[in-house]
Design goal:
The complex is a heterodimer of chains A (299) and B (163). Chain A is mainly alpha-helical and 299 residues long. Chain A is 68% helix and 5% strand. In chain A, the strands form two sheets. In chain A, strands 1-2 form a two-stranded antiparallel ribbon. Chain B is globular and about 50 Å long. The chains are: A mainly alpha (299), B mainly alpha (163). Chains A and B meet through α1, α2, α3, α4 and α6 of A and α1, α2, α3, α4 and α5 of B.
């Protein structure tokens, strides 16, 4: 039993691993390290980002928006790709970066795991909170009525059953088929989440830290949303907000993200998706709008 | 359509060599960022990054060679937890060096690659329209708040003092 499975279209119904395929194709064949200009560019971005350092912009007396080096590197990375004069960062380099990223997730996970191991006693003590907060991710279903009001039909089921990262995409595609409206919905969330997710969650967390009086551990656990890059972007401001608690915050964030990967996917399969469908069948006749999707039936 | 599905290749000695070189590049960039941003001495954090890279390498290798169909994320997590487990003979050594690498230094480098990589999805992103963007933002916010609020309630009910 694996949890990040996707049908690979072979007639024997054999399933493969998305991360593995992506990493293997990009890394094993193409000598990605040879593209030295990509890595030098990353080094330059990191040096610029670390030299600027963290900037805090006060909005009111108690609320401040913190912009961390990690935000500069994401945005600069995207700008470098999109900027026409920068000819050495193109689609090919983006593919290499994406493949390399799949390997570098490992380093991030390893660092979080070391913090988890160090605080393993604390993790067992907080077991109930860690497990139950995974059910909190079901709150995405609350967005379903808004999706219906905006004119989505069955796409809304794919869009609002979960945060729509790789494992969730795999589950939806597996259940509804590649060309179903549900899959179109989850693909849309996946692409938009890829582009704005990390930046958005970093600001969301910064804002929440200054206005919501929640437990520091609750913020740490919530940052494990089941996406390594969003997890990373959410931990940054949390670490900065609670100085002296780095190890505990890293331990909870890492462990919660791990739970989202292994337990979360079963919650999606057995609870979230059926619940989203029930909600859809109940609400769609009441508040459904004219579909905004093109009428074309694709196959 | 996001390209989630690609053909896979067989792991060769050459492939493992590619992993190692990539991890070395990543480690060097992280150590420089770790020095500039957090003023940790380079020698110690280089050893720390070497430890993390070896754990990663072991995890991705096990994912491909062991018969279990389990993600490398799980292998890496288990190895990391065991090595740092209090009382393990390795824990003191691992913690001493790994603690010199700030998580944020790793994250900053990692997200630079993410930024360049996500440029590839830019055209698809622009084609999706504001409605889908609204839903994505709401989905991310509710998943975060859902978990935060449930965790907070359970922590308060089980009497965990706010530190």
């Amino acid at each position: 039993m694996g949890w990040i499975l996707i049908p690979d279209g072979k007639p024997d119904g054999h399933v493969e691993h998305i991360y593995r395929e992506k990493t293997d194709k990009r890394i094993l064949k193409k000598n990605p390290w040879r593209d030295y200009r990509l890595h030098i560019t990353v080094l330059i971005l990191v040096v610029i980002a670390e030299l600027i350092g963290t900037i805090s912009i006060p909005i009111t007396k108690d609320v401040a928006i913190t912009i961390m080096p990690l935000i500069y590197t994401i945005i600069l990375g995207l700008v470098f790709y999109l900027a026409k004069p920068i000819k050495w960062i193109q689609r090919k380099q983006a593919r290499i970066a994406e493949g390399a990223m799949m390997l570098f997730i490992g380093v991030l996970i390893a660092k979080l795991a070391v913090s988890s191991g160090q605080s393993i006693g604390l993790i067992f003590d907080m077991g109930p909170a860690l497990i139950l907060q995974e059910l909190g991710h079901l709150a995405t279903i609350l967005v379903l009525p808004i999706a219906l009001l905006l004119g989505f039909k069955k796409e809304a089921v794919g869009m609002t059953n979960s945060i729509g990262r790789e494992p969730n995409v795999a589950v939806v595609v597996d259940k509804y088929g590649f060309n179903s409206p549900e899959s179109r919905g989850v693909f849309a969330i996946f692409i938009i989440g890829t582009v704005i997710g990390t930046i958005f969650i970093s600001f969301l967390v910064t804002f929440s830290l200054s206005v919501l009086p929640l437990h520091p551990y609750a913020f740490a656990m919530a940052s494990g949303v089941g996406s390594a890059s969003m997890n990373a972007a959410a931990i940054g401001p949390t670490l900065a907000a609670f100085p002296g608690m780095e190890t505990q915050i890293e331990a909870f964030a890492g462990f919660s993200n791990l739970l989202s990967f292994c337990v979360g996917i079963y919650i999606v399969i057995f609870v979230a998706l059926p619940l989203t469908e029930k909600m859809y069948n109940w609400l769609e006749p009441k508040i459904g709008r004219e579909s905004i999707m093109p009428k074309k039936e694709d196959d | 359509m996001p390209d989630l599905i690609d053909g896979s290749e067989n792991v060769t000695v050459h492939g493992i060599f590619n992993w190692i070189i990539l991890l070395v590049i990543f480690s060097i960039i992280t150590v420089i960022g770790n020095y500039l941003g957090y003023h940790h001495p380079m020698e110690g954090s280089l050893v720390g990054m070497a430890i993390l890279s070896i754990i990663t390498l072991a995890g991705v290798w096990m994912e491909r060679y062991l018969p279990l169909n389990v993600s490398s994320i799980l292998y890496i997590s288990v190895i990391g937890i065991i090595l740092a487990f209090p009382g393990m003979p390795t824990s003191e050594f691992v913690l001493h060096y790994v603690s010199q690498v700030e998580l944020l230094a790793i994250v900053t480098v990692f997200l630079a690659y993410v930024g360049i990589g996500m440029g590839k999805s830019w055209d698809e992103f622009k084609a999706l329209g504001w409605r889908a963007i609204v839903i994505t933002v709401l989905v991310i916010a509710t998943t975060y708040y859902g978990a935060a609020i449930v965790a907070h309630i359970v922590l308060v009910l089980t009497g965990v003092p706010a530190v």
